[in-house]
Design goal:
The protein has about 80 residues and is of the alpha+beta class. It has two domains: about 40 residues, no CATH class; about 40 residues. It has a three-stranded antiparallel sheet with strand order 1-2-3, with no helix packed on it. Strand 2 and strand 3 form a beta hairpin. It starts with 5 loop residues before the first helix and ends in a 14-residue tail after the last strand.
């Protein structure tokens, strides 16, 4: 069996595609889960305070970042504050 045989070349190409797909899956799913960023986890609204005002600052209504009281937009996510 020589490496110039078309069947060997096609099988090698399919093996390469399968390997690259496995690497892509690993990097997008397994590594993020290991780092605590599970892409399947849904964002909980309990973690994000909704436009709470505390003195001279408040929290973004979308991401929960602490922003100045007079801010019209969040500096972290860019969301317009109402």
């Amino acid at each position: 069996m020589a490496f110039d045989d078309p069947i060997v070349i096609i099988l090698f190409g399919l093996l390469l595609v399968l390997l690259l797909g496995a690497i892509a899956y690993f990097l997008t799913r397994v590594v993020k889960v290991a780092w605590g960023k599970d892409p399947r986890a849904k964002a909980s609204s309990a973690k994000v305070p909704s436009a709470q005002v505390t003195g001279d600052s408040k929290f973004c209504i979308k991401c929960g970042a602490k922003i100045p009281q007079k801010a019209d937009f969040c500096a972290v996510c860019g969301n317009k504050q109402s």
